[in-house]
């Protein structure tokens, strides 16, 4: 009845004014439906600076947020930029007014120096379908591998043995520093007992041998060095090789 009266009054107006008024009334009628949507709002910042940690120390942080919309907020996907970082949303669905958390853990074991890790979350918020969270800081090394924590044996013929020697050193001097144990995961990599280094005072030399039973193909395996250093009890050495079939 009311709409009929309004329509009757509008019909008496000039056509251009009449068209504009009808369009405005139609938009106003549809507006409440357009406003019905979830909205993600972070209570904390979307970036976290963890400053400095020692290699091997995990960095854990929680990004808190709230659904300030009037529909259920859904965290559809949580994707870290590398395998060193894990992240998950708790809960994944939130009613209007509810709070949630994105828990992020960065494993620093194979990293050193300045780091910048990101996590991208996908939501059903029409204005924030994707949000990027960032962890940044510096990973400090207390126990190092000389000449490098990465040993490249390049191309190796399967029937041959190939050896390399590396040295474990304490960059932060520690009285009585020593290597407690050397751990490897595969039978075709052999490691010697640690022995005092002649080149690096206070360090320990270890020889690694890639045996003839190594599988053909590209391989990358970690050797874990256990030490008594309080700041960094473990260090990793990655052995790389391309094993080819025996020449005929």
Instruction: Outline the low-pLDDT stretches.
Output: 27-33
Class of the largest domain in CATH?
Answer: Mainly Beta
The CATH architecture assignment of the largest domain turns out to be: Sandwich
Gross geometry: elongated
Number of domains: 2
What does the largest sheet look like?
Answer: 5 strands, mixed
Query: Number of helix segments?
Result: 2
Cα-to-Cα separation, first versus last residue:
97 Å
Name the structural class. mainly beta
Reading the helices and strands in chain order gives HHEEEEEEEEEEEEEEEEEE
- What's the CATH superfamily of the largest domain, by name? Immunoglobulins
Radius of gyration, rounded? 31 Å
Q: What do the pLDDT scores average to?
A: 89
Helix content: 10-25%
